[in-house]
Structure formats: structure tokens, C-alpha cells
Amino acid sequence: MRFLAFSLLIPALAFAAGCQSSTQSAGSASVLPLRSLKLYETGVGYFERSGKLAHGETTTLPVPTGHLDDALKTLVVAGDAGGVTLTGVEFSSSLSRGMARALAGLPASGEEPLTYRALLLSLKGAEVEVRTSGKRAETLTGRMIDVLEPLPGAAPTPSPDSGDEKKKKDGKDDEPEAKKPELTLLLVTKNGELRKLDTAHVASVRPTDPSYTTRVGAALDALSVRAAQNQRSLRLLAQSEKPVTLGYLAEAPIWRTTYRLVMAEGGERGTLQGWALIHNDTEESWAKVKVELVNGQPDSFLFPLAAPRYGRRELAEPEERLATVPQLLDTTVDQIWGDNLEEGIIGHGSGTGTGQGYGSGHGRLGGSHKTRAPVVRMGATSVSSSDTLSVGNLAAIAPAEGVEAGALFSYKLAQPLDLRAHGSALVPFLQSSVVTRRISWFSSPGAAARSSIRFVNATRQTLPAGPIALYEAGGFAGEAGLGRLKPTERAFVQFGVDLDVELESVKSELKEAPQRVAFKNDYLVEDFFRSSVRVYEIKNRSRAPRTVYLSLDIV
Q1: Phi and psi dihedrals of 223, rounded to 5?
Q2: What does the alpha-carbon distance between residue 411 and residue 414 come to, in Å, rounded to a whole number?
Q3: Would 312 disulfide with which of 40, 356, 360, 371, CB 3.0-4.6 Å?
Q4: How many CA atoms lie within 13 A of 145 on its CB side?
Q5: What are the DSSP calls for 86-116, one per residue?
Q6: Are 13 and 28 in contact (CB under 8 A)?
Q7: What is the mean predicted confidence (pLDDT) over 138-165?
């Protein structure tokens, strides 16, 4: 094991102790390399690590603290039949903010600031070593009784380093340097002395119990603004003579798509390229990782698992109330009975006071209790196995490029990917010929013409939505947005203004011809045939023929 020494540096308060690092040394545990990754458009990724364990070697799974619950919820271990013996997964328990503060003797409220006084108060009753500063410096060992606030209107505390021997340059005596009133420590030393120490004269306070530093460290870990990014290690308790695979789900950046369409001369066909934007937001560089891009919306939710949870039990009271404090601890029988000097003025009184508090709460997945956060109802739904998420299939089957799987479809990158930690990459995942037709689109007569294409998805795969850049022989033609298209589905893509084509309405005629008149339930019913005749004039000022599409309000 590797140990890291640390010290808590706070003005006038210092702690020093050793704490065990959560990272295992390379000699006792190894991290299996990341082999494959599936990225989903719902913001999660399925990570697979594979490798062979040496004899007597264990493996760890590094995940950020914020991803620990997902890893515990979805972790699967795969290997050849009979080749892997798994006994469990070990990891350091997570502490909530309130629990960590309570263990350190700090106020349980997770939002209350961690002040110097709060740290000192957490030492009440503990044995401490106090070192004072100044000319009368000393080291005291005793138990902390209390931390006293300065009284209202208290005089400033003179500095211990100021004295009458100091002279100003003009020969006059220095005035003692005054400081703002500080806290006062009340201690009882090992010799039984009661000492009051102004914190202005205290250089350090060190608890003699080494476990205190560990508890304060846990509280600081929970309160750290980077607590969710701290790396945690899951240690796999397994024995394997053959390669083993670990699969787990974790939050990952959503992969996004961009397209390039190069139109052939005449606009009848084109070549479509699809590019995916991928981000590695982890602390680990990817080396030769097989990446698969999955589009679809599989359900995934957050669920608290890592931190210990406790229930509440009802307090059952005995019929006879018994005190925990002896009756004669600080009194005598005579004091209880009284002097009884005069019958007329003697009063007898007694009183008892009891108090109790009980609180309980519980929740369950699929229950009916209301909570502050959304819950996932499982009672009315059913869950079936998914071939896409099957670790056995993932490890044994190399999926082809562009595979439909129910509501999901995926693209597998042609080459394994190398990507540094916190790096991004734009990688191609599709290149295919598509059927297009160059058109001039009019939304209504008289409107400006739009340069457009009628686009047919001639691939075997669903195309995810994304921006598309169009090119033709002259270079860049325009940009547009492409919606999600299933195979053989058609879309009209507008990418610019067509200045060479105009369309105007020159005639519009509406005719109605009666066909039948009849009485029905004391009503006169007339059936007629309505026809509309519209004449449009199209002007093409270009030298090439154009196909015009007009959007009609009546079909």
C-alpha cells in the first residue's frame, strides 16, 4: 500500500497525520485497459475493459465519485465459462455531506460554512496539544473544555511581541500593537490546571487522537467542490485463469452528427459523408479503443447506491420509567426532604420532565410515497433483455457497420480510436451514395425561390439528425438542418436563395357546380362540385433547366 502524508493548514490550527491513498499500487492491483466503448444519444456510455489477470493479482476499476452509483448499478463481469470466479467488489464507502461532518464533530448542516471556531468546537472533550507563540511560548497538553466567544465590548488584545523595549525612530516609546478580540480556549491540563488561552497567542492546536484527522479529511472530501471528480477505485475480488471483461455504464458526452453532401453535376445523385463529434471527458487517455455510436433512447436513470443508508426504528419504552442519572448524584436525602422548620410555610414540590423525538421515513423504487425528487415507477412496466446491452454478445460478436437493433441503430468506427484525456475528435462514420434531385422550392406564389434538393435516404441505416453542408462543382452551396431519416425516407432540404427563378400567380378562378338538391329531415341539402383553376407563370433566367416545387394549400 502507498501512504500519503498530508497536513491541514488553517490559521492557528494544524493537524498532521497519514491517510491511505485510495489508489492501489501497481504491484498489488492493475487497471484493465479500456477496449471498447458504446456512446448513446441519451448521455451515457457503455465501457468495456478486458484483459488477463496475473497469478495472485487483483484488478481495480477507476471511476469518478459522481459515477460510482452508475457503476455499482450496471457493473457486469464476463469471461469464458468456468474461467472466472467472482466473490465481490470492494470499495471505500461514500459519505454524505451531513454524515461526514457529523463524524468529524462538525455541525451536521451540509450548507453551514466550515469555520475556524467550528473546527475548534469539534475538539470539545478531546485531548489536544496546544502550542502558543510569542516570548512566553509554551506547549500544553490537556482536554478542550470549551471555545468562548469574545464578550461584547471586550478590549483589544495586545500583541505578545510588543514591549516597552521597542523604540520608534524619533525616540518615543512604541504603543503596544492591539489586535481584534479573538476566541478563547478553555482547557484542563494533565496536571488539573484550568487554562484560558487567547487564540491570538495560539500557534497551533493538534488533537492527539490520529483518527480525528482521518474524520476531518473525510468531511473535507465530502465538502470539496471537486468531490464528484475525485477518482474512486472498485477492487474486483476475483480469480481468473483466462481473460476477463468488465462492463459498466457511466455518464458520457452525447455524440453529435454533422454531414457533408457533394452533389453530382445535374443534382441527380450525390455522395453523403457523416461525421461524429466525440469527447473524452475522463482522466484516462484512450488507446486503440473500439468506438460504436448508438442512436436511440434506451431508458437510464440515476439511483443512489454508494452511500450507506439507514432506516429508523420506533422507540419502545418500558412501563417503568428509570433515570440514567443517580438520584443522589449531587444532593442528599436531607436536601430532598427539606428543613421542615414551620408547618405553615413549608411547601412541597416535585416535578418530572421527559422528552423524546422520533422520525422515520422510507422510500422504495416503485412505491407510492411522495419525494422531493422524481422517482422511477417500475410496477407498471416490464423489462426485457436487450441484445445490444448483452455483455456476452458484445464480447463475442463483432458488430458490422450500421446495424439496426429494434428502436436502436449503431455505427461502428472502422478503426480503433486514440484520444487523449479531456480531448475531442471529429471522426467519419458514414460515406454512401444517395439519391437527390436539385429543385427550386416556393412556399407560396410570389415568395422568393429557395435552392433545395429532394433527398432520399438510400442507405440501409437510419440517419441521425444534424447540420449538413452542401457542395457542388462550384464549391460551397449552402447549409441546412437534416432531420432524422429512416431508410428510403424522403426529405426536402433548403440551403439557400435561388435568384434565377421566379413564380407568380397570373390567374385564379373558383367554380361551383350544383350536383343534387334534396330534403333531409326538414332541411334542404345541396351537393355541389367545387373546382379551382390557378395559372402560374414561371421565369427561369438561368441557362440550365430547373425543376420547380410549389407548396399548395389545396391539394
Answers
A1: -90, -10
A2: 9
A3: 360
A4: 14
A5: EEEEE-PPP--HHHHHHHTTS-S-TTS---H
A6: no
A7: 71
Q: How far apart are CA 410 and CA 8, in angstroms?
A: 50
CA gap 142, 123 in Å, rounded: 11
- Structural element, H or E, at residue 158: strand 157-158
Q: What is the CA radius of gyration of the chain?
A: 39
Tell me if residue 473 falls in helix, strand or coil: coil
The topology under which CATH files domain 127-153+179-207 is: SH3 type barrels. (2.30.30)
| Cα angle 284, 307, 211; round to 5 | 90
pLDDT at 288: 95
Q: Which of 275, 278, 255 is nearest to 424 (CA)?
A: 278
Residues 6+ apart with CB under 8 A from 46: 37, 38, 40, 247, 248, 249, 389, 394
Residues facing 59 on adjacent strands? 30, 236
Amino acid, res. 256 = R
With residue 25 as reference, give the H or E element that holds it. Answer: none
Distance CA 158, CA 186 (A): 19
Q: What is the pLDDT of residues 346-390, one digit of tens each?
A: 444 444 444 444 444 444 444 444 434 443 343 333 333 333 333
> Which H or E run includes 220?
helix 210-223
pLDDT at 402: 56
State residue 11's pLDDT score. Answer: 34
pLDDT at 533 over 50: yes
Helix (H, G, I), strand (E, B) or coil at 69: helix
Please check whether residue 203 is in contact with residue 160, taking contact to mean a CB–CB distance below 8 angstroms.
no
pLDDT of residue 361: 43
Phi, psi (degrees; rounded to nearest 5) at 552 = -105, 145
Q: How far is CA 17 from CA 105, 208, 238, 359, in A?
A: 18, 10, 33, 37
Domain spans of the chain? 127-153+179-207, 501-548
Mean pLDDT confidence for 489-505: 92
- Distances from the Cα of 47 to the Cα of 62, 296, 401, 429, 544, angstroms: 12, 18, 19, 19, 53
The CA–CA distances, whole Å, from 466 to 11, 92, 470, 479 equal 55, 42, 13, 11
Q: What is the dihedral of CA 321, 325, 329, 334, to 10 degrees?
A: -20
**What is the Cα–Cα distance from 317 to 331, expressed in whole angstroms?**
27
Strand order in the sheet with 84-90: 29-31, 58-64, 231-240, 84-90
Sign of dihedral through CA atoms 438, 442, 447, 450? negative
SS (H, E, C) 328-374: CCCCCHHHHHCCCCCCCCCCCCCCCCCCCCCCCCCCCCCCCCCCCCC
Percent of the chain at pLDDT > 70 equals 70
386 contact partners, CB below 8 Å, separation of at least 6: 298
